[in-house]
Every structure is written in C-alpha cells, then in structure tokens.
Write a structure and sequence with these properties.
- The protein has two domains: 59 residues; 114 residues, Pleckstrin-homology domain (PH domain)/Phosphotyrosine-binding domain (PTB) (PH-domain like), CATH 2.30.29.
- The chain is built from two helices and nine strands, in the order αβββββββββα.
- The chain has a seven-stranded antiparallel beta sheet with strand order 4-3-2-1-9-8-5. A two-stranded antiparallel ribbon has the order 6-7.
- A hairpin with a 2-residue loop joins β2 and β3.
Length: 203
C-alpha cells in the first residue's frame, strides 16, 4: 500500500466528524422549533378558552346573585357527598352557565330539606334553591361537557330570576340518585318541567 493510500482515511476523518456534529446541531434546532411552536399553540388555545369564558360571563351578567341557605334550613330529608359538575341553561346540556361560580366543578355536600336544596361546595361559592324554585330532577349522563354513564348524573332543574337552570351532581354512590329524583319531583309538584331525551327543550 502506498503512502498516499494511507493518508486518505486520515484526511476524510475530520470532514466526517464535522458532518456528524452539524447534523446534531440541526436536529436540536428542529426540536427547539417544534417545542416553541407547540408552546405557542397551547397558549393560544388557553387564551381562546379564557376569552370564551369571559364572553359567557359578560352575557350572563344579568343573572342576579345566588340565594343562600336560611339560618334554619330544616331537618334533612336526603343528603350526600359527591361532585358538582356544572350548570347549564335548562334542557341545553352544552350551554354552560359560568356566572357566580356556577361553571366551576367542585366537591359538594348536597342536602335536601322541606325548605329547599342546599348546595355546599368546596372551593367554590355555595347556594340554596328554595322549594318554590325547584322544577324537578332527572337521571342523565351529560352536562356542561361532562359525560358519564347512563344515570350517572343527578340533574336538578330550578328557576332563578326567571331563568331555568340545570345543575348536575354525582353522589359517591350513584345508587342514591333515584331516591333524589323521586323526592325532588314530589316537592316540585305541578311546577316540574319535563325535557325530551334529546335535550333540545321542554315538552
């Protein structure tokens, strides 16, 4: 083998190393670009969601403050601990109500008395639905974008300042729900409102 042949691999070595180094730099640049782009996309989506929330709150600004429980609400007829999943315009399971904290999901202690329904929430404003404002209850599976199994939600319909609302709750024991539906409908009497299964309105 001639000396020139021996030198050929040595001469190619630095060039190959430089090419490999350049490739690594290019890969990292691409990755950083993707990460920055993804971060900007997530930020934009969050901003749009926040703007939508603020827009809804503005539209619902006419809804007055929620009633609060009386000093002596009476003896409990039913009670459970569970989750509050949100409120919507009655019969419209995707038309979320966000005014006065009604759009915030939270833990809840739900208590029914002869005077009404006490909604005591953790980390969010509680409220009280007087018996005269109750418009019935039903078993359902979806409200405010939350979808559960059939009968997984207790949906209570009530009236506040002339507006019919649906509020969705889930007990730690879903087997409790039918008893609540029966009792709330009995308290609502002729004021109870019945909605079609497609949730498009009352019948």
């Amino acid at each position: 083998m001639t000396p020139s042949n021996l030198l050929t691999p040595l001469a190619a070595g630095p060039a190959e190393a430089a090419a490999k180094h350049s490739a690594k730099v290019t890969d990292w640049t691409d990755r950083i670009g993707w990460i920055v782009g993804l971060a900007l996309f997530v930020t934009l989506v969050y901003w749009l969601m926040r703007q939508g929330w603020q827009w809804r709150r503005t539209l619902q600004g006419g809804l007055p403050e929620l009633p609060q429980a009386p000093d002596e609400p009476g003896e409990p007829l039913l009670a459970f601990d569970g989750r509050y999943h949100g409120s919507t315009t009655a019969g419209q399971w995707l038309d979320r109500i966000v005014a006065h904290g009604l759009g915030v999901r939270s833990k809840v202690r739900l208590t029914l008395t002869e005077q009404g329904l006490d909604v005591d929430r953790t980390g969010a404003p509680g409220y009280f639905v007087p018996t005269a404002a109750l418009r019935g209850a039903r078993l359902d599976k979806a409200i405010a974008g939350k979808v559960l199994t059939d009968g997984g939600l207790l949906v209570v319909t009530w009236e506040h300042a002339g507006t019919l609302l649906d509020s969705g709750f889930r007990s730690e024991r879903a087997a409790d729900h039918p008893a609540w539906v029966e009792r709330i409908n009995a308290l609502s009497g002729e004021r109870a409102v019945v909605f079609t299964d497609d949730k498009e309105g009352a019948r």
